[in-house]
Design goal:
- Strand 5 and strand 6 form a beta hairpin.
- By secondary structure, the chain is of the alpha+beta class.
- It has one domain (21-156): Nuclear Transport Factor 2, Chain: A, CATH 3.10.450.
- It is built from 4 helices and 7 strands, in the order αββαααβββββ.
- Helices cover 34% and strands 36% of the residues.
- The strands form 2 sheets. Strands 3, 4, 5, 6 and 7 form a 5-stranded antiparallel sheet that branches.
Length: 157
């Protein structure tokens, strides 16, 4: 995967709108309090929180991809993969020991709102069939949830 700083430069340059960014604002007084309670307000956006969340979601996806590459079920579970899915991955790795699974996730398809996020990616699965390698690509959807300040994979379809 590309370095995080490069991806976020693309994120900012592309003007990706992340839902919830409008809600994460500070209201600051433009001047001191006025008599009568009519205080003009200036809205100051807080893009740092959105950027921080995007970084943490991306780190969780990198953790998932690393676990897949090493076929490490403990790391998959740490990324948020549920026991039912872990059993499927275990069976897949057992049946296809030479298989590889990789995800390409464009930063523009990352959508964050409050404590949930979704990311549409292209997954490539390469399986050895006899002496040939077969690569299959398909769209995969990741759903993330934020619990106790940490992002976890809530669903993957």
């Amino acid at each position: 995967m590309k370095p995080v700083s490069f991806l976020f430069a693309l994120f900012v340059a592309a003007g990706v709108s992340v839902a919830g960014a409008q809600d994460r604002t500070l209201i600051a007084s433009a001047s001191g309090p006025e008599v009568g309670g009519n205080t003009p307000a200036t809205v100051i956006p807080i893009p740092c929180q959105v950027s921080s969340d995007a970084t943490m979601v991306q780190e969780r996806l990198i953790q998932f991809d690393t676990a897949l590459a090493s076929k490490n079920l403990v790391q998959l579970e740490a990324a948020g993969i549920q026991p039912v899915s872990l059993k499927r991955w275990q069976r897949f790795f057992k049946d296809n020991p030479e298989a590889t699974v990789t995800d390409r996730c464009p930063i523009a398809s990352l959508f964050i709102m409050d404590d949930t996020a979704s990311w549409n990616c292209i997954e490539t699965t390469t399986i050895n069939s006899g002496k040939k390698q077969m690569a299959l690509e398909h769209m995969i959807h990741f759903a993330f949830t934020k619990r106790n300040g940490a992002w976890l994979i809530a669903d993957r379809r």
